[in-house]
Amino acid sequence: MLFEIVTSLIAGGIAGTAYLKRQGVGDDKTRIERIAANAGLVTRDGKQIRIYRRTKGKGYTEYVYQIPLGLSFADFEKKKHVFEDGLNIKRSTFDLSIHDLTDINFRSNPIPQIKTILQKKKKQKKEIEMAFDGMLKIRVYDEPMPDWLLFDESMLAKCNGWEIPIGISRTQFIKHDFDAIPHMIVAGATRKGKSAFLKLLVASLIARHPDDVRFTILDLKGGLAFAKFRDAQQVEAVAKNPIEALEALRAIRDEMNSRLEYYLDAGIEDVKSAGVKERHFVIVDEAAQIASAGETDKEIKRLKVECEHILAEIARVAGALGYRLIFCTQYATADTLPRQIKQNADAKLCFRLQTEIASQVVLGEGETDAAHLPLIPGRAVYVTDRKQIVQCAYISSDDIDRLIGPHINIRARKDNDEGGKNVEKGNCEGTAPRSYSLIISET
User: Fold this and answer.
1) Which of 34, 104, 160, 255 is deepest in the core (most CB within 10 A)?
2) 162 and 123 in one domain?
């Protein structure tokens, strides 16, 4: 009797394993090696990656490979999306548990029973992470990252100093420290999470540093994205066109030069050693609207060129003076992302972009990850001294109101003339006096 049970279990196990293998389950090692070979990750003498260790963790399996001489980790990382797509071809990840398998009666034909269990299956895209420490590590996750993360105020409690919450990675809560890395480039196609992140950034800083933070916002898409913030006492200006942008940037340049001269005379190294608590954030959204390349109006082009020069100066020298540049664009090209700004902004938060070329413009040569992110709002590549895939937190309108409400002032708003130019007396030669209208913001 015992012999019959054992042989039935063995036979059923073999049949079940064969069926699951045909369904594409449990064979990631072989798939990875085949994908590498088919993707050309083979040396001239035909050597391929060789498995060194396979480890099962909670929610993932890690495969460690030896890379043959002649290939580099960068060769594999560039083709991460090829591995990820290959692991998901004709694949379903099934909702099978140990309990499910123990319910199978292997004395009878197990195949129909397995098929019944597999009716519970759910389609899931497997995701991978790659790392290198002398060995190629490919971690294959059983389930995708959460595709939604709602902000809550406990995130602010996890931040220290000039840190702000960003979201989560596979393994941890992610935050950015603007005193450690003062300037950031934020890029992403329309409705992929860029504007939502900027609102999270501004609201978080106002909530955490209401007395020490200042903002100059160049919202060259009309000003609507930052309408909630324009009457916060921490916001010095919201510029909506190149003329207003240049006026705001000139004021920053004058202040910056005065501070630099004072620090030099006093032998002060930076804002920290000066004991200055204040930080001034300059947010540019959208960079393409301030780019001088392609501008046909000579006067507007002259204004934009001066704006670009001041922004480049902020990126080069103003970090030590307490200024923080957040430079944002939907259209990542060499024209919209100036070299001086890219070189001096050591943090990048890049949401999905439409092409590999655009991804490389933001993240660097060979870095195409942003073009292969899933179509999930808030999913981004976050780069500092390392690269991480993150799901950014979404902050609701109600949360913004709650955080900034105590800091809203009733103030006079500048009206514009028909051409969108400021008309304040004394602002520009030959202009008419500016009129004001009373704005009462909801809190």
Assistant:
1) 104
2) no
Find the domain containing 23 and state its range: 2-141
Residues 133 and 214 in one domain: no
Regarding whether 79 and 51 lie in a shared domain, the answer is yes
Domain assignment present for 267: yes
240 annotated as a binding-site residue? no
Compute the 3-state secondary structure of the chain and give helix, strand, coil in percent, each to the nearest 5.
35, 25, 40
Six-digit token string for 344 = 């001096």
CA atoms within 13 A on the CB side of 40: 3
199 marked as part of a ligand binding site: no
Q: Which residue has the tokens 């123990």?
A: 102
| Cβ(315)–Cβ(170) below 8 Å | no
Q: Is 221 marked within a binding site?
A: no
Q: Do 42 and 48 meet the contact criterion of CB atoms below 8 Å apart? A: yes
Residuewise pLDDT in 10s, the chain (443 residues): 444 544 554 555 555 555 555 544 557 999 999 999 999 999 999 999 999 999 999 999 999 999 999 999 999 999 999 999 999 886 555 555 555 566 677 777 777 777 776 665 455 678 999 999 999 999 999 888 999 999 999 999 999 999 999 999 999 999 999 999 999 999 999 999 999 999 999 999 999 999 999 999 999 887 788 999 999 999 999 999 999 999 999 999 999 999 999 999 999 999 999 999 999 999 999 999 999 999 999 999 999 999 999 999 999 999 999 999 999 999 999 999 999 999 999 999 999 999 999 999 999 998 999 999 999 999 999 999 999 999 999 999 999 999 999 999 866 555 544 444 443 433 444 333 333 333 334 43
CA distances from 58 to 53, 96, 108, 143 (A): 16, 15, 32, 11
214 is in an annotated binding site: no
Tokens matching residue 115: 């098929």
Alpha carbon of 49 to those of 70, 76, 201, 271, 406: distances in Å?
11, 10, 43, 50, 59
Q: Which two tokens stand for residue 417?
A: 């003339």
The tokens for 133 are 């420490």
Tell me: do 88 and 11 sit in the same domain: yes
The set of residues, in sequence order, having a beta carbon less than 8 Å from that of 409 and lying 6+ positions away, is: 231, 232, 233
Q: Report whether 195 belongs to an annotated binding site.
A: yes
199 and 124 in a single domain? The answer is: no
Strands 235-239 and 279-285, sheet pairing:
unpaired
Known binding residue 193? Answer is yes
Q: Which helix (H) or strand (E) holds 246?
A: helix 242-266
Where residue 185 sits, what CATH number does that domain have?
Answer: 3.40.50.300
